[in-house]
Structure of Aspartate aminotransferase:
Amino acid sequence: MGSSDRSRLGALLRHLGVEGPTSSSISAFPTSAAHSAFSHLLQAPEDPILGVTVAFNKDPSPVKLNLGVGAYRTEEGKPLVLNVVRRAEQQLVNDRSRVKEYLPIVGLAEFNKLSAKLIFGADSPAIRENRVTTVQCLSGTGSLRVGGEFLGRHYHQRIIYIPLPTWGNHPKVFTLAGLSVKTYRYYDPATRGLNFQGLLEDLGTAPSGAIVLLHACAHNPTGVDPTLEQWEQIRQLMRSKGLLPFFDSAYQGFASGNLDADAQSVRMFVADGGECLVAQSYAKNMGLYGERVGALSIVCNTADVAGRVESQLKLVIRPMYSNPPIHGASIVAAILKDRDMYNEWTIELKAMADRIISMRHQLFDALHARGTPGDWSHIIKQIGMFTFTGLNSEQVAFMTKEFHIYMTSDGRISMAGLSSTTVAHLADAIHAAVTHAG
Ligand code: KET
């Protein structure tokens, strides 16, 4: 700004009755970083999971391998758009009657109905009795957040118990929703299995009415799920203490390859007539990651309560993002309502689940062949997208530095990112990490 400009600005401001800035304060206008309104901000760390992809993208090595984020890759290491999704999209594009109007606050009605059916079962009494309210949300994360906000506003107990360990975003989502986060024991590093006794003890001493976050299947990051008998014991304990279940169902179909089998835990809790919340994601099981499609269902004990719950959910959603996007939910609805497309989806889903299971065997065999010290049978026993290897953060850092293998520092590997061509490289890296590092 030149000096004549400055004096003209000063005159204008005086004319308007505003105290004109002196020439020195004008020259100090926020043109330099030191005077930014945000200059006090510290550089925030990258997200522990999504930041792995940021680091991966910066690495020029041709042998680099991203086993961080839980996103499915083909044998060729490429992201996969399911055939059935392409078909549904084509159908949507060809339908000239479709418009881009706002959806209702709760999203696409058909999508909500079909999503409830998918998780609770077609013959669910809760659905038949109109005791379920389902709202379309922004994938699994958005569903958890809307559920958390709702509970923070309307539920008498603010404490939510999450498993130790759990998906890294859980504590952040629920804390920001105004809940107070506590943990319950879940994983036993010694057995690389479920710490069932610890879980029962911790839930047994939880204050009555506390919320409990449960992974419906394919627990992230451990790959360890309770058996059906253990689920039944958890259910009895929770119901006897009036604990409120909040299921996170991000991997329905990925654990066993079967959508119904993977919904058993949720259905057990609904079958007893009690209340619960469920956050569903279509990111993984339909490969709709970036479309952000999910649903929050709240099962209530009467239809009347469910109606009032839905009215309050609308008040939670409207000021956050008004209403959800239309495209992804339309894809899901098109697939779920058409018998032929639904069947095609289940076949493609099973193929993804099977490929992951086959990678578990290949990795286990490769470590066995190298004589890598340790018992690696957990690689085969664990369920879902991830293997919780037991590698420590130094070993992970070593594998990234020496082998360009990217994974979260807790030793979690996304098996869906592995293929027959990269398994040897990973096995070499693990072998070297175990024998040389940490
Ligand atoms: N719950 C769990 C247990 C979960 O693992 C994820 C994603 C989500 C919810 C949310 O997914 P959404 O895309 O909002 O539907 N987990 C993978 C990706 C991520 O961290 O965002 C992961 O753990 O790699």
About this structure: The pocket of KET is lined by residues 49, 69-70, 139-141, 167, 215, 220, 248, 250, 281, 283, 289, 294 (CB under 6 Å).
